[in-house]
Amino acid sequence: MTNAALITVLGAGSYGTSLAMSLARNGNKTVLWGHNPQHIAELAKERSNEAYLPGIAFPDALVLEADLQQAIAASRDILIVVPSHVFGDVLAQIKPFLREDSRISWATKGLEAETGRLLQDVATDILGTHYPLAVLSGPTFAKELAAGLPTAISVSSTDPQFADDISHLLHCGRSLRTYTNNDFIGVQLGGAVKNVIAIGAGLSDGLGFGANARTALITRGLTELCRLGEALGADKNTFMGMSCLGDLVLTCTDNQSRNRRFGLALGAGKGVDEAQVEIGQVVEGYRNTKEVYLLSARLGVEMPITEQIYQVLYENKSAKEAALDLLARDKKGE
Ligand SMILES: NC(=O)C1=CN([C@@H]2O[C@H](COP(=O)(O)OP(=O)(O)OC[C@H]3O[C@@H](n4cnc5c(N)ncnc54)[C@H](OP(=O)(O)O)[C@@H]3O)[C@@H](O)[C@H]2O)C=CC1
Ligand SMILES: O=C(CO)COP(=O)(O)O
């Protein structure tokens, strides 16, 4: 491994691989690390990630690395793309290897498991305030990104130079368009809340409700996201951007979304475990529902859809009863 890579991606699942391919297609030497050495050896041999993105060849500038210390040493910029429930563990693992000039970004969507903290607070808690932080978020299904289909994403950072640099590495002028956004909190929050509402949209469709119900859920789900965002100090312009409205619409309306498919399976009568096994990849919204619901309760923010989905997932309430309870709420001003 040479030390000249421009960016190291941590997490060789569907999205980490897809982002690493996008970065490498732009000619940036990109290191992709995963925690399973056998899987990394397979990726290096096949020059594709058959388990997650079958049939899409890696660009030449993509380098595989199974050694975490080497992966961190290779690049100044680090992009973490692991599920939110292991985000803190991965930060703790990389901490001893970080360079003085390291900059840390992530594309993980969610809040910290159990605490409901934003991932920026997890990062600052574990790493301190020395390293610039950045987040990428938006409507970006891994498979479409990997296939080179047109996609747009937001980048936000504690350091405007870091946001510009990450944006420059990703933006390609053909298929991937990046927008910088100064609202670090808002860009993180959208990805967590949309996962919850996407489960609701899947539940609704799984129950056989129609397009009216799905669209009402998306619209009122956005209202819940706005309320929570305002309580956390997010900028209201962000709510209409890629990381909030954009990702909410994407994941609520297309069956590539694992969260939506999870809701569909529950709506069709399957259990939580059965639905997760069937999907076979991370379903962030399952945990995110608990964290978003508890956060809203702590902050006193009204989020009735989130509350009902929480009761379905964690309190054994039937999806139909949850829908009836939502519909039975007093009429009110929009
Ligand atoms: N897929 C998508 O379209 C998008 C995903 N995201 C977000 O990206 C994040 C990652 O999701 P995604 O790639 O889709 O998930 P996948 O389920 O496709 O892959 C998750 C990856 O994380 C790895 N992993 C699990 N635990 C650890 C750990 N402790 N250390 C290192 N790696 C670990 C898994 O390894 P193993 O296979 O060995 O378990 C797997 O390679 C999520 O927060 C998701 O919301 C954001 C936008 C789009
Ligand atoms: O975040 C995503 C697209 O932007 C992926 O959504 P799912 O995790 O629901 O598959």
From TrEMBL:
Record-given protein name: Glycerol-3-phosphate dehydrogenase [NAD(P)+]
Keyword Lipid metabolism: yes
HAMAP family from the UniProt entry: NAD_Glyc3P_dehydrog
Residue ranges of domain Glycerol-3-phosphate dehydrogenase NAD-dependent C-terminal in the record: 183-322
PANTHER family xref list: GLYCEROL-3-PHOSPHATE DEHYDROGENASE (PTHR11728), GLYCEROL-3-PHOSPHATE DEHYDROGENASE [NAD(+)] 2, CHLOROPLASTIC (PTHR11728:SF1)
Binding residues for NADPH: S14, Y15, H35, Y52, K109, A142, R258, V282, E284
Residues reported in the UniProt entry to bind sn-glycerol 3-phosphate: K109, G138, T140, K194, D247, S257, R258, N259
Reactions performed catalytically: sn-glycerol 3-phosphate + NAD(+) = dihydroxyacetone phosphate + NADH + H(+); sn-glycerol 3-phosphate + NADP(+) = dihydroxyacetone phosphate + NADPH + H(+)
Gene Ontology terms, MF aspect: glycerol-3-phosphate dehydrogenase (NAD+) activity; glycerol-3-phosphate dehydrogenase (NADP+) activity; NAD binding
Family: Belongs to the NAD-dependent glycerol-3-phosphate dehydrogenase family.
Biological process annotations from GO: carbohydrate metabolic process; glycerol-3-phosphate biosynthetic process; glycerol-3-phosphate catabolic process; glycerophospholipid biosynthetic process
Span of domain Glycerol-3-phosphate dehydrogenase NAD-dependent N-terminal: 7-163
Main localization category: cytoplasm
Subcellular location: Cytoplasm
E.C. no: 1.1.1.94
Residues reported in the UniProt entry to bind NAD(+): G11, A12, G13, S14, Y15, G16, A142, R258
Pathway: Membrane lipid metabolism; glycerophospholipid metabolism
GO cellular component: cytosol
